[in-house]
Each structure stands twice: as C-alpha cells, then as structure tokens.
Amino acid sequence: MGGKVFSKREAFSHGYKMTKKYVGVILRIVIISAVFQIINIMLQQGAGFSFISKESVYRNFKDAGNFYRHLQETGCIDKYGNVQEKLKNIKNAQDLTLPVNLEADRDKVFRFLNKYRYRLPFSKGIFYLLTIGLWVVAIIMNIGWVKITLLCSRDQKPNVSELFSNGGLFFSFILASICYTLAIIGGFILLIIPGIILIIMLSMYQYFIIDKNMGPLASLKASYALTKGARWQLSWFMVLALLINLGGVLCFLVGLLFTIPLTSIATAYVYDQLRRQEETAIA
Fold first, then answer.
1. End of a domain among 82, 114, 146?
2. Domain region containing 232
3. How many independent structural domains does the chain possess?
4. What is the pLDDT along the chain (283 residues), one digit of tens a residue?
C-alpha cells in the first residue's frame, strides 16, 4: 500500500467549522461534564485526603517540624504521613490533643486537619461504590465524546444522549486502553522514541471500537494498519493539535472550551480521510 495523504490545514479548518456549527450541543456537553466533575470533586473532598505531606504543614504552621512529629507521635498519621483512624474520628477542635505552643491556634489546626477527615453522610462502603460508579460513567462519557466528534466531523448533528448511550463498548474500550497504555510504557522504557512511535501508530484505536465495534486487539491492529504510510504526517498533526490546545490554556483555560472540540473533530476527520484511502486501496 502506498503512502496516505491528508491535509492538516483542511482537518483543522473542518474542525473549526463543525465546532462553530454544533457549538450549542458542545456547550451542553461541557456543562454536563463540568457538573459531573464538580460532583466527583465534592465526593473525593468529602472523603478526606489520605496523606499529609510535610510541605503542606510547613506552608501553614511556623513550628511545622514539631507539629508534624506530634501528629505522628499521637497516632494521627504514620511515619510516612498516611492518615490514621484517630485523626478521621476527630469531630471538633476540642477533640484535638495539641502541644502547648499550638493551643492558641486550635481552631486553625482543626480547619487544616478537617480536610483529611471523612465527612460524608454515608458509610465508606457506599463511598467506594459511588467512586467506582463515577469512574464507569466517566469512561462511558469518554466513549460518548469520541462518538460525538465522529458525528460532528461527518456533519451529522449529535444528540447529547450519545454521551451516555455507548455503555456496551465499555469493556472493549477499557481493555484496548490498557493494552495501549502498556505498549506506550514499554516503548518509553526502550529509550523514549519507540514510545512516541507507538503513540502515533496506535492513536486511532478508539475510533475502530466506536465506529466499527471492533474488539481490543483488533482495534489496535486496525490502527497500526491505518496509520501506516501516514505516521510522519500524523506526528506533525499531533504537534499542531497540542500547540492549538496550549493556545487554549494561555487564554485563561477558557480557550480549551473551543480548542478541545476543534482538535477532537479534526482528529475524527483525519480518521475518516485515512479510512477512505484504505478502502479505496483495498477495492
């Protein structure tokens, strides 16, 4: 098979055009994703942080070294800084056992330590179930986002419900993502360059799962075949996409609300262009 060709300028131009056309749908997806993230963050913060670093103590207290040792000696944290049950069970400032030099800062100490306590109104078992559930929903939303970018790229108006309607692809997506990640890690262990090459070679596996309902290994093999002959172009395309999103970051992060859909739709467009060339070559 000969080398494949696609226009990077055309891809990003198409991404820009479709992002503008379907901006209403995209904004609704952004709002849903933001609400989901807020719920997840609130849940994790309510469960309390599990580790107190020396740096965080030094940022908040003058006699930080003695305070940190006091937390260890009283069994609030272990020698590595991991929060223990004793600290998690402290309900108010008066429950704290403090050295004399910190008595005046009792309320401040409690406010600092409170974020490391479990404060949710339900058991930890329910918390763990909710965490797993939210993780599953996040993966399904990721799958839905790829499907939506494909539809936008093909000028087919997507429905917001697509964000949650692809749960049947969950296990294929997870297994393929694990294989992809392991391959990349292995590549980076082999002096970095092989890892970069594998990122490019296998970058289209998600589309084959979502667009063609392929299994994990089949999607990775299909991506390997699809990118053959276009990997140098794809590397430059990825660099440009990264620079565009960095531009979004520089615009006080707000720019990402536009650049992420733009580059995602542009990538879906490149997938379709390479697929057409592959099908034509086979025919």
1. 114
2. 8-43+137-282
3. 2
4. 457 899 999 999 999 999 999 999 999 999 999 999 999 999 999 998 889 998 998 888 888 888 899 899 989 999 999 999 888 778 888 888 888 888 888 899 999 999 898 889 999 899 999 999 999 999 999 999 999 999 999 999 999 999 999 999 999 999 999 999 999 999 999 878 999 999 999 999 999 999 999 999 999 999 999 999 999 999 999 999 999 999 999 987 889 999 999 999 999 999 999 999 988 887 6
Whether residues 150 and 255 fall in one domain? yes
Query: Closest Cα to residue 76, out of 60, 59, 57?
Result: 57
253 and 160 in a single domain? The answer is: yes
Amino acid identity at 143:
I
Tokens of 118: 């479990």
In a domain, 2, yes or no: no
- H/E run at residue 174: helix 170-189
Residues with Cβ within 8 Å of 240's Cβ and at least 6 positions away in sequence, in order, are 8, 12
Three-state SS for 51-118 is ECCHHHHHHHCCCHHHHHHHHHHCCCECCCCEECHHHHCCCCHHHCCCCHHHHHHHHHHHHHHHCCCC
Contact 105, 61 (CB under 8 A): yes
217, 261: one domain:
yes
In a domain, 176, yes or no: yes
pTM of the entire predicted model: 0.88
The answer to whether 265 and 149 are in contact (CB under 8 A) is yes
Task: Tell me: do 99 and 74 sit in the same domain.
Answer: yes
